[in-house]
Each structure stands twice: as structure tokens, then as C-alpha cells.
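Minutes, project check-in
Item: structure for the 105-residue chain
Input as provided by the requester:
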Amino acid sequence: MEGIIGLVRLFIIFFTIRIFLNSIFRRVIMRKQVYNQKNINDLEDARRFSEENINEDAVDMVYDQVCELYLPKAKAYQVVEEEETQYFCSWECRQHYIEARSIKN
């Protein structure tokens, strides 16, 4: 009889520990899920913010024939010839183009 009472006590202790550990693991898992959901929401907000600002941050790019590079139109130097506009990255490139055009003509 004492053996059976010992087994019952052992099962009670075992299940008590198991219930206690399960409750701890559930809390840990719930916290991780909440944390992950918060990070997912933050990433979605960041993605949505960047997609909304893509159109606002779009910049017209123009080509500099002398240096062979692209630059923002707002920062480019210009030469207008017969309804055609040429763009340059610097004043020196612009002057070089003008001098080369005057030599050809």
C-alpha cells in the first residue's frame, strides 16, 4: 500500500511540475509572438513609409555628355541650343562643351 501511495505522490509531483513548466513556456512563447508581431508591424510600417515616399523623392536625372555621367537635373548646368538643352555636372564641363562647339563651327 505504501508503494501505491508513493507512486501517487510521484505522479502528483510530476504533473504539478509539468503544469508549472507548461505555463512558463506558454508565457515565453506568447511574449516572443507579441515581440515578433510588433517587429513585423514595424517592418510593414517602414515599407509602407518608404513606398509612399518613393514618388516624393523621385529626381529627374540628366546626362552629362562631357563626363559621361548622370546627375540630378536640379544641380545641372545647362546650355540651350535650338530647342535642345544640354546638361553638365560642372561649370568647367559646360565651358569645355561650348569651346568644343565653337571650334567645330
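Outcome recorded: Strands lie at 61-64, 69-72, 77-81, 84-88.
No further action items on this chain.
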